[in-house]
Amino acid sequence: MDWYVYQRGSSPIRKVSRKGRRSRLKRNLLIVLVICAAAGLLWCAVALGRISSGETANPMQEADAGIILGMSMWGEEPSPGLKERLDYGLGLYREGKFTRFIVSGGLDQADYKYTEAEGMKNYLVGQGVPETSILIEDKSTSTYENLLFSQKIMQSEGLTTAVIITHTFHGQRSLEIARELDYTRPQLGLTDSQVMSMFKYKSREILAYTKWKVQQLFL
After folding, report:
1. CA 211 to CA 10: how far, in whole Å?
2. Quick check: 6 pLDDT over 50?
3. Best label site of 9, 118, 129, 147, fewest CB within 10 Å?
4. Distance (Å, rounded) from C-alpha 77 to C-alpha 197?
């Protein structure tokens, strides 16, 4: 249906159709969606670049503790990915980079026998690490909580410096969180994965990194 816009005492000066208005609205909406999609892709590229920038400290200075950030348990055993972190941390421990472990991670599922931290401790003890050298943080449910709660354990034990042990794709966010929490000279100890899909985990890390940057605005 068409309608006319009149000026007083004159003939119609403009004719507008509903179909034309709908067409313009659709075009404008499409432009907005394209802009949003382009901005999202640009941010993903930036985030991926940041994620890929994490590096192991070189040279790595001796620290008071090595904090191993948790991953999922497979029943009563650490998952293959978590074993990679544990084995890498064991290597640093045996090189004398630190003398105490802090293993950090809560309960994955209500019916699991062990938390991530308990499963990690059991694994390390099985590899010959004395129980007295392992501190447990078993309440955390996120990387932020891993580092926040581990920091409280460090403070209670008189520990001041730490190497944060995780996978390469997870390192940059972990370091940024540690700095936000005012860790003293935090260092990264990063290992690549031979058992996990990097497409899957880097995609998830982009989302996690985005969430962290939003969270950081309110800290």
Report:
1. 59
2. no
3. 9
4. 20
pLDDT at position 4: 46
Please compute the mean of the pLDDT values over residues 40-61 and round it to a whole number: 94
Element at 174 (helix H, strand E): helix 168-180
d(CA 6, CA 65): 80
| Dist. CA 199–CA 17, nearest whole Å | 49
- Whether 118 shows a pLDDT value over 60: the answer reads yes
Task: Read off the tokens for 100.
Answer: 């105490």
Which of 219, 160, 23, 129 minimizes the C-alpha distance to 103? 129
Looking at residue 131, the DSSP 8-state letter turns out to be G
pLDDT of 19 higher than 80: no
Tell the residue number behind the tokens 């650490």, with chain if given.
78
CA 156 to chain centre: 26
Phi, psi at residue 43, to the nearest 5°? -65, -40
Q: Two tokens at 122?
A: 């059991």
> pTM value?
0.86
Question: Per-residue pLDDT averaged across 44-58, rounded?
Answer: 94
